[in-house]
Design a protein that fits this description.
By secondary structure, the protein is mainly alpha-helical. It has helices spanning about 5-15, 20-30, 30-35, 35-50, 60-85, 90-115, 120-140. Helix 4 runs antiparallel to helix 7. The longest helix is centred in the middle third of the chain and has 26 residues, at about 60-85. The radius of gyration is 15 Å and the shape is elongated.
Length: about 140
């Protein structure tokens, strides 16, 4: 978390100054492959937070599943940033998709800390996640 998220934000802010090498371009091509796990898993986590707080998993199981999802979400966001460095996409669409993907990754990490929050806050966070997910993935599909 302390390496991937700062790296993701630095690449997003300074994307015009980053000169992607061949390896970075190749890693960017993995974005469509890696993004499906955190999207589907994030939707399931949101459904769990919204509807199933009365039937909870063991705390360690929750932390493990949320950590795996967050790791994949940050990895998918970084690969997406690498892909965006190839300048093959429209700026308006790519910016909405890029910052939406970063928000999805950061909320995925916030889900881990939300285990200590009240159920209402978890539900609000889950709904926010779904709204950002729908908006940003729609823009990604348009790309």
């Amino acid at each position: 978390m302390w390496i991937l998220n700062p790296l993701m934000i630095v690449i997003a802010i300074f994307d015009q100054k980053v000169d992607p090498g061949l390896f970075v371009q190749w890693m960017g091509k993995l974005h469509p492959l890696v993004l499906h796990f955190p999207l589907v898993f994030g939707i399931l986590i949101s459904i769990y937070f919204i509807f199933f707080q009365d039937r909870r998993f063991h705390r360690d199981t929750e932390k493990l599943l949320l950590s795996i999802n967050a790791l994949f979400a940050s990895t998918a966001a970084i690969f997406g940033l690498f892909l965006s460095l190839q300048n093959a996409y429209e700026n308006d669409l790519i910016n909405i998709h890029k910052w939406g993907g970063i928000a999805i990754a950061l909320i995925s990490w916030l889900f881990i800390y939300s285990l200590n929050f009240k159920d209402l806050i978890k539900r609000v966070l889950a709904v926010l996640f779904i709204l950002i997910l729908v908006a940003s993935t729609h823009k990604g599909a348009q790309l």
